Amino acid sequence: xAPRASIAVSSGVFPFASARASQAQIEALAVRCAALGDxxxxxxxxxxxxxxxxxxxxxxxxxxxxxxTISHHTKVLVAAGLIVGEKRGRWMWWRISExxxxxxxxxxxxx
Length: 111
Prior knowledge:
Blueprint: H1 2-10, H2 23-35, H3 39-51, E1 54-55, H4 60-63, H5 67-79, E2 83-88, E3 91-96, H6 102-110
Antiparallel strand pairs: 1-3, 2-3
Helix pairs in contact: 3-5, 3-6
């Protein structure tokens, strides 16, 4: 397990995951990790990261949950700063937040 963590840190996935990290940086990472700790939210995040951008209506099948449940979980991911949405007509379209970075999303997808 330790080698995998050191690879992630050295590759820039967690650029502040070191002894020099500020308390605010550690807390921000903890919020993101907590949001991804739920299997449904992790599945939603992986689907969005894999697609680049995806409609809420297209999350029902891969996640296996109803639209109200997906809506609840996407709100948690938004609050954690992991995803952003744009309303287009009746549906929300989701993408990974710019602050997350592609290396973090790629790391999560690879798990």
